[in-house]
Amino acid sequence: MILVAFGTRPEIIKLFPVIHELKHRSIPHKILFTGQHLDLYEDVRTLVPDPDFSFTEILSRPGKDNTLGESYHKICGAAEGLFRDIPFETVLVQGDTTTALAIAQMAFYNNIGVAHVEAGLRTFDMGNPYPEELNRTLISRIAEINFAPTRQAVHNLVREDAKNIHLVGNTIVDAVNHFKQKMAWRPKSSNKVLVTLHRRENHVVMDRLFDEVQNIAVTNTDLDFIWPLHPNPHVQKHRKRLSAPNIRIVEPVGYPEMLELINEVCFIITDSGGIQEEATCLNKKVLVAREKTERTETIDIGLGRLVGRTISASVPWARIAPPPLSESPYGDGDAANKIVAILSGEEKRGADT
Ligand code: UDP
Questions:
Q1: What is the pLDDT of residues 204-223, one digit of tens each?
Q2: CA-proximal residue: ligand 1, atom 8 (nearest)
Q3: Best substitution site from 230, 235, 258 to test ligand 1's pocket, by max atoms within 8 Å of Cβ?
Q4: Distance 10 CA to ligand 1 centre (A)
């Protein structure tokens, strides 16, 4: 029996193709939702079946966020109980969240194998992204199977002596393709600019980033800025800094709507990891408002620029349409199929790098 564990919006988005594939092949599995991001769960819950296990009551703290330590501690405690009761053969975790680390560690303590989706992303800077660089590095030490999304990720894992490394691509490509086909999109471009900013390490400079976007909007009146504002209070408290009439603040949007937006914008300003990849899949330029990125592939192929806090200087570059994308550096959209083939033993579990 495989347990698929997630606790946040990006984990659900990147795991739903794998869950669909497990179901499609009738491979026994159960689903755990830790409730780490309860406020964003409603926006993506329809992508996955209802969970078999949930820690939401343990994590829920109405009106107040858990600290990193509180989330970690609560998830560990609840997972320990679950793993004592049910001897899962494998636990599948994704990415670098507190959920992924806590579940991986508790699985390890209970002699349950850990398989890690999107393994090997690194900036080699523990402060950027924080605390994700530490989380994913520790998970790679624990994991018995590492599903790497890119050649660079494989390289990073080999250097760290990680076990059973498989280059499978990133499941985000599967997720994007799923909706592309379902909704029969064509490539589009408009005068819209998508903005999302929420990263923990940017909280201390969030005021400056908001002012940058406000100034860009004032000096580019032909562009319309659409900004699904993250519910985190460290982000929300700055919304009054935005007064330009061409900035539209909206609630977080559902995933298909988000992809439609990305598909039609002129360019994107973001500090999100997943949106850098989605922008690449849909051939959009992206200004990455971070000091470091682990998605260097987007920068390397000329679709992204790492701008830190100085976003405005790169706007003229972002406004120039990119050439057609020949091949995605994040894979061909077959990652879930490859992951499930390996998990089910259809393909050998040995190193495949
Ligand atoms: N996303 C969404 N609606 C929104 C904002 C983001 O569906 O209003 C999606 C986005 O397309 C991406 C994921 O959420 O797939 C990114 O999540 P987030 O930015 O929270 O985390 P990160 O990617 O930095 O881990």
A1: 999 999 999 999 999 999 99
A2: 252
A3: 258
A4: 6
> Does ligand 1 come within 6 angstroms of the Cβ of 7?
no
List, for residues 140-190, the tens digit of each pLDDT value: 999 999 999 999 999 999 999 999 999 999 999 999 999 998 888 888 889
Looking at the CA of residue 8, tell me the nearest atom of ligand 1: 20
Buried b (16+ CB within 10 A) or exposed e, 215-244: ebbeebeebbbbbbbbebeebeebeeebeb
Q: Has residue 351 got a pLDDT over 70?
A: no
Ligand 1 contacts CB of residue 252 (under 6 A): yes
Q: How do residues 291-338 score in pLDDT, each as one tens digit?
A: 999 999 999 999 999 999 999 999 999 999 999 888 899 999 999 999
Candidate list 116, 166, 198, 230, residue with the active-site label: 198
CA of 275 to the centre of ligand 1 (A): 6
Asked if residue 41 has its Cβ within 6 Å of ligand 1, the reply is: no
Lowest mean pLDDT segment, chosen from 36-45, 97-106, 132-141 = 36-45
* 345: Cα separation from own chain's centroid: 27
| Top-tier CATH class for 192-319 | alpha beta
Question: Which atom of ligand 1 has the smallest separation from the CA of 37?
Answer: 20
Which amino acid, one-letter code, is at 144? E
Instruction: Tell me yes or no: is domain 2-169+334-343 CATH 3.30.420.40.
Output: no
Q: How many CB atoms lie within 10 A of CB 144?
A: 17
- pTM above the 0.85 mark? yes
Q: Which 3-state string (H, E, C) describes 131-169?
A: CHHHHHHHHHHHCCEEEECCHHHHHHHHHCCCCCEEECC
Residue 352 is classified by DSSP as B
- The boundaries of every CATH 3.40.50.2000 domain in the chain are 2-169+334-343, 192-319
Q: Is 13 in the pocket of ligand 1 (CB under 6 A)?
A: yes
> Would you call 116 a catalytic residue per the annotation?
no
